């Protein structure tokens, strides 16, 4: 798949994400101001929810709701809708399997999705379902960019609401 465009995640930096690779990280409650009117820019990106840094963060980027997870220096972006039954993956726990692969475990029925391939690692035998992943780049300043095949056409509908 070809990713033609990388859009920045606004108001969220790499260092804001909970690092799931650090076992000593304790659950901290941090609230990001959600009541502020979202500033719409070309990326139409805003933080939707970040109630608890122990959990992944869900952002809206290119009109998609995407869960972000940090594991060490890696940031994984996955559509926030579990392919099994639509569960909110950003509320899932991150697990390192014995082969060192990093998985998100859906909070609803505990299916585990490999965050590098999207494949179901648990339960066995589900080869057709896959979590939808997006490539991520981070800049030296800690900006996070998510890759897409193109601009979502709904993005331009949303632009009609903007008054310049
Ligand atoms: S909805 Fe995610 S495992 Fe069922």
From TrEMBL:
<dbReference type="GO" id="GO:0051537">
    <property type="term" value="F:2 iron, 2 sulfur cluster binding"/>
</dbReference>
<keyword id="KW-0479">Metal-binding</keyword>
<keyword id="KW-0001">2Fe-2S</keyword>
<dbReference type="InterPro" id="IPR017941">
    <property type="entry name" value="Rieske_2Fe-2S"/>
</dbReference>
<keyword id="KW-0408">Iron</keyword>
<feature type="domain" description="Rieske">
    <location>
        <begin position="45"/>
        <end position="147"/>
    </location>
</feature>
<dbReference type="Pfam" id="PF00355">
    <property type="entry name" value="Rieske"/>
</dbReference>
<keyword id="KW-0411">Iron-sulfur</keyword>
<protein>
    <recommendedName>
        <fullName>Rieske domain-containing protein</fullName>
    </recommendedName>
</protein>
<dbReference type="InterPro" id="IPR036922">
    <property type="entry name" value="Rieske_2Fe-2S_sf"/>
</dbReference>
<dbReference type="GO" id="GO:0046872">
    <property type="term" value="F:metal ion binding"/>
</dbReference>
